[in-house]
Amino acid sequence: MKRGITGNGGEAAATNGSSMPNVTIVSRHTGPRGDVATRLRLGLVRPNKEVMPAAVLHSLEHFLDFFLREYLKEEVITVSPTGCQTGFDLVVMGDTTAEAVKAALFQSLDSILSANAVPAADKAHCNSYKKHSFAGAQAYAERILQALA
């Protein structure tokens, strides 16, 4: 079982999905010039209990890629859905904390609720632009925010 830092106070905790949603630091890597990259897991639904529908996951990916870049002070390298469809992997430049990412996640989810459309969900910017669920992404954002409250 991997150990990490959750977004609820910074104490070490097992990343077994018992408390959802959660933000866990998976790893940190230091490059040859001293640059630090931090990989985090944004667990949004309970592993082995539920998965997000593909169209919802795809839309949330677009939203989080857009809003996390706005709300995190660290440079976002990538936001990508986990293969198990329970959340996202986030890689940022810098030595960030799970608490900072959880705050940015909260702001991002809140911004989804007031959005008018999925960012970059068009033929010019998305290879699967027909496979989105704006309403589904907003419903999941609201559900996750309620769990964070």
- Which structural class do you get from the secondary structure elements? alpha+beta
Assigned CATH class: Alpha Beta
How many helices? The count is 3
| Largest beta sheet: strand ordering | 3-4-6-5
Architecture in CATH? 2-Layer Sandwich
Corresponding CATH superfamily: S-ribosylhomocysteinase (LuxS)
From the 3D structure, determine the CATH topology.
Answer: Gyrase A, domain 2
Query: Strand count, sense and closure of the main sheet?
Result: 4 strands, antiparallel
Question: Which value, in Å, is the CA radius of gyration?
Answer: 15 Å
What is the number of strand segments? 6
Distance, first to last CA:
27 Å
Helicity range:
25-40%
Give the SSE order as H and E letters.
EEEEHEEHH
Outline: globular
Strand content: 15-25%
Instruction: Give average pLDDT, whole number.
Output: 88
Poorly predicted parts: 1-17
Domains, number: 1
Summary of the model, kept short:
The protein has helices spanning 54-71, 98-113, 134-148, and strands at 3-5, 12-14, 22-30, 36-43, 75-81, 87-93.
What does this 3D model show about the protein?
It contains three helices and six strands. A four-stranded antiparallel β-sheet has the order 3-4-6-5, covered by helices on one side. Mean pLDDT is about 90; it is low at about 1-15. The chain has one domain: 2-Layer Sandwich (Gyrase A, domain 2), CATH 3.30.1360.80. Strand 5 (about 75-80) and strand 6 form a beta hairpin. The protein is globular, with a radius of gyration of 15 Å. The chain is of the alpha+beta class and about 150 residues long. The longest helix is centred in the middle third of the chain and has 18 residues, at about 55-70.
